[in-house]
Design a protein that fits this description.
8 helices, mainly alpha, single chain, 53% helix
């Protein structure tokens, strides 16, 4: 996972990654090869080579976690309160438009109103991801959609339109025609 896309690691994930690096350090000390470590720990060979270099320069201490890259601006208590407010929904906070979902901009504004703390849109995304929240995209469906008619078409009409598969001759994905002989 790339940190920029994943929004940072939770403390638990940081600890797990540190354990993997320390396990690699033990294997370095035993003289194991990079390929074996890569396979056993399920990491890239590039990471193992980088860890080995760090280990050679600074020992096991060089592979220990340096702590969170960014410090959260919300305390645990503030986060718990924010989470409660997010569960109440946008309508409870004055957004009464057609779309009743949380956007990053709305969450940013809510944090600012509640705690007087500024976040960027990207910072809000990282904060939410770090605490286990994910993007939820509502399915867009026509108001006139008729589920019964769709199911009838899928089970009755589609098999007739599609027709049976011809199995008397092996098929080919090639666009060229067979030579006539």
């Amino acid at each position: 996972m790339r940190y920029a896309q994943g929004g940072g690691l939770t403390p638990g994930e940081q600890e797990k990654r540190e354990r993997v690096r320390l396990e690699a350090a033990e294997r370095f000390a035993r003289g194991e090869k990079t390929e074996a470590i890569t396979k056993e720990l399920r990491v890239t060979s590039r990471s193992v080579r980088r860890w080995r270099h760090m280990w050679q320069q600074g020992g096991v201490q060089a592979l220990r976690s340096r702590g969170p890259v960014s410090v959260e601006r919300l305390s645990a208590r503030q986060w718990a309160r924010l989470e409660q407010e997010l569960k109440r929904g946008p309508l409870a906070h004055g957004w009464d438009d057609e779309f009743q979902g949380w956007t990053l901009k709305r969450v940013k504004l809510l944090i600012g109103r509640m705690f007087h703390v500024r976040y960027t849109i990207q910072g809000v995304w990282k904060l939410l991801r770090r605490h286990g929240w994910s993007a939820q995209v509502p399915p867009r469906r026509a108001i006139e959609r008729d589920e019964e008619a769709i199911e009838m078409w899928r089970t009755g009409v589609w098999p007739r339109v599609k027709g049976p598969r011809r199995t008397w001759e092996p098929t080919s994905v090639s666009r060229t025609r067979r030579a006539r002989g």
